[in-house]
Amino acid sequence: MVGTTVEWYDFFIYAFAANLVFQQLFFAPAGPEVGQLAALASIGLSFLFRPLGAFLAGHFGDRLGRRPMLVITLLLMGTATVAVGLLPTFETIGIAAPVLLILCRILQGISAGGEWGGAILMAVEHAPEGRRGLFGQFPQLGVPFGMLIASGVLAIMQAVTTDEQWLSWGWRVPFLGSIVLILVGFWVRRTVEESPVFEEMQSLKVRESAPIAVLFKTALPIVIFAALIFAGNNGVGYMITGGFVQGYASRPTDAPVPGLGFDGPAVQIAVLCAAAMWAIFTAVGGWLSDIIGRKNTYLIGYGVLAAATIPLFELVKQGPLMIGVAGCLLAIGLGLTYGPQAAWYAEAFPASVRFSGVSISYAIGAVIGGAFSPLIAQWIMNTFDGNTWAVIPYLLLLIVVAVFGTLMMKDRKDIPLTSQIEIDGTWQKIMDEPAKK
């Protein structure tokens, strides 16, 4: 949970800054509207590299262990984040500035693509039977906690700096401050024990030489459906976690890309409250899935998320207080469709290709869902003269896609997680022969 919090603090700081200042600092020559779209596109660009991170971490995580990948991805994310805080702007070094910014974002995407799978497997594969949903929600909590810290730091920096100071150096402080969190996360991840399931795989020599090839040969439909169940959560969630609502709410009404002109720190505090609610219902979702099953929890969660999506922007327009209300309503559905994900993904794949399976499914789902949802939402608003109602059908479509994936996925709650292969639709334990046989 600590390591995942650090990873996602770094990820969210970039998304929030892209909505607030990157158009002016890195993409200004493109013009206000195109520059804002370019800044939002840079958020989504990292998602395209998540599958690469998932492939690399999955391959080596299934062969070398879960723990080494956790340490490597944490350091990669941290290095890229601190580098963003040190970058000169377009005014200083010209076109090299956005090029270097995008390179840092790509490194963040590779890290995020590999980090999540290792984190959730370390939690779920240590869990006692019947409590995987509860244990699996801890690394999931790192995402709302990362957003909570990111929102809090940004609120403080916007409150203590003038507009000129904020654009000059204030936005850099949250990026540079990441180094403290990285040191803490590195220490924690270095001391955690390797997954008992991976240790059993080593002792029984149940390892695939090419786990990704085996995954696609034997479990491609599972990868697809698992990716779809995440698309709705990630796409709708990125209206807030991707910084779109914050940018829309706090940009001045007379800006080239107009917003609502609300007080920036007040907006960030409202989002902070939503992040706290997201954390609470992520924990509830993991716990509830141990009782009623992963699929049932997801279906309830997506029903709540759809209901909260419809009035989202109308509430946002009422001011920071109602932004907090809208975010908290959204957070209930987001939590219920995020808390059980670690356990459901882990139970969907056999041990020898599990790291690859969960990482690649998560990465593909993120590409389908959240990768470009802020960009698409802004493009829709530009096309329909700022009409936020035009964005709602797009978000509801993502939820429909996710519900389809949920209905197609098997619920294998409490299935053994030790070294297995699938035979006739059920996992069977392998005692002394490689899984490929």
Notes on the structure:
There is one protein chain. The protein has 437 residues and is mostly helical. The protein has a single domain (2-429), classed as MFS general substrate transporter like domains (Growth Hormone, Chain: A, Up-down Bundle), CATH 1.20.1250. It is 75% helix and 2% strand. It has helices at residues 2-20, 22-26, 32-48, 50-64, 66-86, 90-93, 96-124, 132-160, 163-170, 172-176, 178-191, 196-204, 211-237, 244-250, 264-292, 294-309, 312-316, 320-336, 341-348, 354-368, 373-383, 392-408, and strands spanning 420-423, 426-429.
Question: Level of helix content?
Answer: over 70%
Cα shape: globular
Number of DSSP strand runs: 2
CATH topology: Growth Hormone, Chain: A
Q: Supply the number of helical segments.
A: 22
What is the averaged pLDDT score?
A: 85
CATH architecture: Up-down Bundle
| CATH-assigned homologous superfamily | MFS general substrate transporter like domains
- Under CATH at level 1, the class stands as Mainly Alpha
Order of helices and strands: HHHHHHHHHHHHHHHHHHHHHHEE
Helix-strand layout with pairing:
Blueprint lengths: L1 H19 L1 H5 L5 H17 L1 H15 L1 H21 L3 H4 L2 H29 L7 H29 L2 H8 L1 H5 L1 H14 L4 H9 L6 H27 L6 H7 L13 H29 L1 H16 L2 H5 L3 H17 L4 H8 L5 H15 L4 H11 L8 H17 L11 E4 L2 E4 L8
Antiparallel strand pairs: 1-2
Helix pairs in contact: 1-3, 1-5, 1-7, 1-8, 1-11, 3-7, 3-21, 4-5, 4-7, 4-20, 5-7, 5-11, 7-8, 7-20, 8-15, 8-19, 13-16, 13-18, 13-20, 13-22, 15-16, 15-18, 16-18, 16-22, 19-20
